[in-house]
## 1
Amino acid sequence: MLKRLLMSREALLAGAILLLLAVISTRFPAFVTPQNLGNVFNDTSPLILLAIGQMIVILTKCIDLSVAANLALTGMFVAMLNVAMPGLPVPIIITIAISLGAVLGMVNGILVWKLAIPPIVVTLGTMTIFRGLIFVISDGKWVNSHEIGDGFKAFTRATFLGLPTMSWIAILAVLLFSIVMARTTLGRAFHAAGGNPHAATYAGIDVGRTQFWAFTISGALAGLTGYLWVSRYAVAYVDLAGGFELDVVAACVIGGVAIMGGIGTVMGAMLGALFLGVIKNALPVVDISPFWQLAISGGAIIIAVALNAQANREKGRIILKRAEHAT
Amino acid sequence: MTDRTRFIPDRLQSPLERHLKSWESLLILVAVAVFIANSFASPYFLNAWNLSDATFNFTEKAMIALAMALLIISGEIDLSVASIIALASTAMGAAVQFGVDTPGLVLIGLGVGLICGAFNGFLVTVMGLPSIVVTIGTMSLFRGISYIMLGDQAYRGYPPDFAFFGQGYVFWVISFEFVLFAILAVIHAILLHKTNFGRAVYAIGNNPTGALFSGIRVARVKFILFLLAGLMAGIAAICLTSRLGSTRPSIAFGWELEIVTMVVLGGVSILGGSGSILGVVIAAFVMGLVTFGLGLLNVPGIVMSIVIGALLISVIALPRLWQTWRG
Amino acid sequence: MLMQSETDLSGPSKGNAIPVIALEGVTKLFPGVKALSDVSLRLYPGQVTALVGENGAGKSTVVKILTGIYQPDGGSITLDGTAIAFPTPQAAGAAGVTAIHQETVLFDELSVAENIFLGHAPRGRFGLIDTAAMMDQAADILRGIGAAIDPTHKLKDLGIANKHLVAIARALSIDARVVIMDEPTAALSQNEIEELYALVETLKAQGKAILFISHKFDEIFRIADRYTVFRDGELVGDGMISAVTEAELVKMMVGRDVSQIFPTRTPNIGDEVLAVKGYAHPTEFADITFTLHRGEILGFYGLVGAGRSEFMQALFGITRRSGGTTTIDGTTIDIRSPADAVANGIVYVPEDRGRQGTIGALPIFQNVTLPSLGRTSHSGFLRLAEEFKLARDYTERLDLRAASLDTPVGNLSGGNQQKVVIAKWLATQPKVIILDEPTKGIDIGSKAAVHAFMAELAAQGLAVIMVSSEIPEVLGMSDRVIVMREGRMAAELDADDMTPETLVRHAAGIKEAPPC
């Protein structure tokens, strides 16, 4: 049992992150102070949130390329809402962001479930549509820091027990979804629907409906992140978080989520996101141009996929009994 | 054993009949409708030079879409093509700084394309990794190398005669790019529809295991397809760089999605196994005409992406809705 | 035509039993096909009912109706005598109907316990799944059926027989009243089959109604109490198993008398074509050495999982061998891919036609010419007229039935698909043809045709290797038999030494003749 735990992907990845931190700390001890590590975690929180949603979608044999566009559209919407109605309390704004994100996710889910359109096509399409809609609602204009209300911005900056709210939300999401995945019927259904859709049908699981819920969760998390993002960086524009969907997929792949579905954990998604987060934050510290980041995450994806494939490779049937000799 | 009473005819439906009922015919109708709508919408549309200009909207993307169509029919995908453009363009730009002349630049552009294609092909066919993740990885990697080389700088100073590829005209309003695209389209159509290689592509896309068991060299065919996609990206890089006259690492950003949209709009099944070059070519024209028409109406590019995204989903959704409707 | 739909509701041993579940006059339509037409099926408590029929007779459609995956277009389902509907698989599960299917429980990445309790796990606080209780209950059920399986293990770590036990444990976990077993012994070894039979007896004793679907007559007569026969979606007979003979069942199945007569042939064995020496693989087989001659049919017999298909696929270049040589017509060749094998005259008709043998969406003629395009084309360019000609030549030799050569292969029946696969390979003019379970899952009529054709091929001088798990087929067709066991050659038998007993004895590794 202990051996299985130690040999798991998550443990290996956690080890890799610790090793990375150790190497960096030999030259730049300031990087591993609790203060800075907290910053790294906070910085990575949006990626963690989106990676959890993406992990669930990939589990069900789908992919959601529209998450970053969803984030940006929801972010722009709540930012404009805040400008229009400065009195709206933050909890209501958050509720609206989650709901809007979930509805956008449901659009993906309905198209995949009811019309059986391949998820990559659906989300490729909705990705461009969502981006276009941001332009339509904002008329291409930015919502700038000075227009956004202080309460709206303060929420993510408030700290509790030394950690900013955004970090706490990421931690809560990790805990919540760990429980959902392991201890609820829906969580098991995500695994089953992607692991063996045919058998899942026999076990009474509606695969299409399960995929619909996966997209809904992914959308809701993207909506939530949309608010957090705009609150944190105090700006909203059409290209907000452009290309971020690839980082999200990368975090999942590095976290051991199998692109063919059925394999993946919340912990893995979080660690995959943290791995990318540490690299991103470490580059300027170790004095490597930030322009290296893209190439490094690309390399990390390729290596992670290769490792995943190695681990999940079908072993040949074991027929021979070595001890025995032919009659 | 021949029993004439049980003679099996070659075909029940003539090829002509099949073509008339095909996706391509529908696309042609759409293209004609867009053309007519455009000519009513804008007085500037029916002008030879304007129409010629319009072709630049899609020829470079469409060249890659040709090779992408073959890849998708074979059941694979290459999301790194736009990044290959960036890397090839960056390599050419760097070579200019060393005084390489136009023939040398062309060779470098094509060579980088082929090397990138070979790298993708190696990862997919030799390492056996899923192309959708691998090429998300190389997409970051290739463009990442461009960023490492260029940062926020740009390469300029291409030799004057290099401008011909993207700005030259062969005859009257007929641009070099357009002629090149037409030639490449014919070559791809012959390769896919008239050769043993093309037949193998369809067989692999429909059932890779069955194709392997039928003595098809599946890995070799797929490797060649990745090479081809890389080569087309190299050619597109030459045209685009020549047209723009400069290279930034963000060159052709996001093109991969437009290219995949073009291919799917052209009737190629995203699941592999079916599609035609004719369909892709018509789809390229449709997308080019829509973009151009909206441009004449002063509709911003980002809003066009809504149209493109909606087009992508609806061309797949509508036939399915129609089928459900009819029971 | 034999119509003996006796409505004797009570078995001889059970008085006045009413069926737990019954289908009455059920019809199921698919676009263009009537999959089931007015069929009835009754399952009684504590009894095993065997459902018999050829492929395409409607057996799997019935299973899907009973488990709520399909909805009947006519007729009724009754549970304990009252009408009921199963609009969803969940509804069928709630009524106590469960199916054990090769595909029912196969979530490799979930634990054994999760596989057993998927969809109905014990709940604890806040409605969350109570993992500890789930593990305990799973362990109890597994112990109850005598399975030594750790419920915390992932399913992927289990062997195929243990996966079956997990499926059965799942059936018990939902307190099933009706257990459907769809070819449960297909992938099991003899020992495992015996354990399964014992388990079936246990389920019977608990009063469960069991629907047992099998193609193997010996096991039907061994464990079934009743039978129901379907043919072409219609009910052709049902009754007590003790009141019927094997011959009568076969006759009902196929609608005519079929004597399992194999073509008489006078083997004309010529020169050596193929010599295989010392073939080995790290985990699948070792020390495979034999020769094959022109005009010879060499049978490969063994239990399922003895490594026969694995060896054939290595010989054909699908998997990489770790040692051994292949010699064709005296020249040693290195086969690294199927393309190499085909180029050297070795072709392979795989067992899994849908996945490996054919490209379902492509038309017949393209399937046939796929490996022969080098001959029908002109410097790499297709010539359709040549393709149609080649496809016509070979499909007509095999008496293929199809609307046109342009029809997708996936639309053909199993027997006709097999003919396309064989035509494809004959068109390459091979020297050696390997047929892996060539008649598995095809109707009895087509079976005879395939056998006759094999004999004809051998007579024309082709060397044939036939992998088969059916003893009559092995004995009826082969000139020589190699028996494999656990990845090795257990015996090589000449025509004179081939008896059902010797085959079984070598395949199962029994040293002396069995006592019975």
## 2
Amino acid sequence: MGVEIKVEHLTKSFGKQLIWGDVTLTIPAGEICVMLGPSGTGKSVFLKTLIGLLKPDQGSIVIEGTDIASCPERELYEIRKLFGVLFQDGAMFGSMNLYDNVAFPLREHTRKSESEIRDVVMEKMDLVGLLGAEDKLPGEISGGMRKRAGLARALVLDPEIVLFDEPDSGLDPVRTAFLNQLIVDLNAQIDATFLIVTHDINTARTVPDNIGLLYHKHLAMFGPREMLLSSEEPVVRQFLNAQRVGPIGMSEEKDADELAAEADQELPPLPPIPMQLEPSNGVPRRSQREPGGWCRDNGVTPPPGSFEPQMTMTTGA
Amino acid sequence: MASSTSTRLLAPVGTAGKLFAFGLDVGRGLFRRPFQLREFIQQAWFVASVTIIPTALVAIPFGAVIALQVGGLIKQFGAQSFTGSASVLAVVQQAAPIGTALLIAGAGGSAIAADLGARKIREELDAMMVLGIDPIQRLVVPRVLGTILVAVFLNGMVSVVGVAGGYVFNVILQDGTPGAYLASFTALAQLPDLWIGLIKAAIFGLIAAVVASYKGMTAGGGPKGVGDAVNESVVITFLLLFVVNFVLSAVYLEIVPPKNG
């Protein structure tokens, strides 16, 4: 059914270097969220903190009444059974073939018989399109296949929360499109809470219900998709439209001179907001909102051409 | 400046503390069910397979060198009949556990550190923790127990091969009499010597496996980090072994008085 994740005043630093501070957000149950941010802003660190692999310096992460940041290790291992995590490279166990990899959580945590395990594993392998590759070792398959196998393993315990660490990095556009469709279909099917960490703008613009943007050691904005896509806030606008004009420079931030130099440059208009990706069976997801609904409720005029079904998925100039 | 110097000076203390804490975690993991029997057997077999042959090959010259040294010395006292006894004492009490431990650390420990280190940098350990499985219980405990078991068995093998090697060298090269060599076995050596040898081997196996696992699981910084972890684990284990061996020998000699021939 999905579980809500409540993050409050979360701060993490490595030594003296602050990664991000005072991050407060609530990831709503059953919805798809995307966490965006320029490279090196600690998106993966955020993900690892959410599952308790890294301890934050301050703040709390509450899932079903348990604070992950301060609970004892034993509880942490219990609460982690709610999670399915897709790691960047799939993180498959190199010594086992794909079948054993996917079956691993079932063998460790359930008392299912081998034939029941086989049914579940085959179902998940079919879901990610890997039937026939069960006997391969992770070293023998491509990065995209490893990623899909990692997804199958993440889903095998029927998680309430699924975290994706850059599901689209290193995948070709077609596979990325398929994977995005798979994510949306999965959400419709299992109603779990999804959090995707990525810097692929196309994914961010079309897949999620909510978007968050990490920038300059803090959470710049978190809210419904249409709110961020129609936002005039410079950082959000620059990042979501992949522009060079704006506060984000090649190395983290631009300095005052650079900003002054582009002060009188005309900002390109906001590109239209695309339609959200729908489940392939056409039945809307439970958390899906009506296109343009947020804009209408909040009196925001979406950029011209928004929510037109035939619109191509351009990411703007 | 001052603070950076003190952090640098205190860093080894922190590492020692973390290693000890890791050892305690392993100790706690020992009693957590379910016990990973399959992994235990696989690991014990693996450690045995990489150590048996090198250990046997090292044991022969070990025994021979002791026989040659002691034999030469003892001849000057005119006490050749005690050669066998001295050789047994030295091999069983000291050479066997140390030789075992060096090979366990060098061959078994480095393999464990490399294996866990590779898993660490490929995020496999993270993935395992996220799947709700404690890698200490699932991976480290079986390795530690497997290494201890193999160390104890190897210790027995080194004792036998070492004493046999000593016999061959004493009898063939130094013209010792076979009967005297065998008959003097129990003149100086006694049963507790065998026990301390086994206890030492078990403790050395424990240290080697815990250090290797700790270094492997804290490896970082890509493939180079794994190499460093393996290297450090072997060096740290060797250093610890000699210190612990000294302490154990001193305590043992206090508790069990040497037998007078």
